[in-house]
Amino acid sequence: MSLVAVLNSQPEVQRLIEKAVGEDPLGFVLTTAHTSQQAMEVLSFDLPEIVLWNATDPDLDPTPVLEGLQNDSWMHNFGIVALFDPKLASEIEVNDTLRSINVVTVLPLGALGDHLLKHLRILDANRQILVHLQLGEKEGAKTTGSFNIDNDPSVVPVYAGLAAQSLVQRGYLPAFRKRDLQIALSELLNNGIEHGHCGITSEEKTEFLARGGRITDLIQSKLDDDPGLALRKVTLEWEIMPNGTRFFVRDQGPGFDVAAYLERVRGHRLDELSGRGIRLARKIGGKLSYNRQGNVACLKVEHDGVERVIPRGFEADEVVVAQRGDVVFRQGEFSDHIFYITSGQFGVYHQGVPVGLLTPADVFMGEMSFLMNNMRTATVVCETPGRLVKIPRRSFVQTLRQYPQYGLFLAKLMARKLSQGNQERARKVLDEMDSEALL
Question: Is the pTM of this model over 0.70?
Fold first, then answer.
């Protein structure tokens, strides 16, 4: 069960939200903020997993909320579903207004009844990506993941938004590029559904849309004609490496003649339907390639290092510029500072053995020994150039007095790390028990 913050002052919109969310038997806990001040209090102290923001609410000024989120972006790792009234703003305008924060998907008010609950369930099931990524990743290892997606175009932007947001969280992609990557992945996923699974040709799609039809209706008609198609899934896989990420979009269709198709759509305008996904992916997403069969697309995105904003209260503290090979601290040293990670990657070594990798997604380093007045339990070495804020104990305590929400966030962050550690230890014990049972 996730806590969902609703930023909205309009009763009619609130009723739409409650009606849509109320259909979930497991339930989401809703807490509503009617003003900008209430919104910041809810976001800072309740620390919700998901936020529903009525972005076209005329009585809820977005400026102070945006400024607050940008100032404390390091502690706001929830996923935002932006709601909007098409009579007041377009989807493009809403995305442009909120481009600097972690909006995962955008929904018009008229679509809440059909799609809001589906989107919330996807976000809830994948909140480990929203809240935090894999803490203490193994150095040099690839981080992988995947989504298996039904033939439903309405959920595609959510999965694509989660994948793009994962790079932003790690500091590998600027927030303003996230929307571009989301669009590119969405187009490739939709191609897998429309062309790969349903066999819809570009001519058929163009003619159907010209008659005023919706692509979702055309897809549904194909699924109705052949129930076996409904069993097919489009898979979105990713491999996150230090210098770049590879996304694989795989459908279960027969594929297509890649070379002939690329030649046919060469020179088409970006807004033309035929080949739009391929051209968008190449234009704004990175390097695109296909397997020979034509049912697997690989999109390679180079990482663009992002410097996190120093949290309020710590601006006057020392900034450490680290180069590859620099030792941040050594195992056995007394812990009198905590470090905030603004950029870079840092290897963690215990007794000289590499045990993890820290990035801006981990927020802090050395917080456990720092808070427990203990010795450092590991050595941390800079692996790629980066910057750290070295925060002494006195400054940390003074800032917590001024911004008590930081303490809540740090407690939640440590609880997640402890929970993940317990889960990993439990898995190791189960694996050992399974190995002994096989002997």
Answer: yes
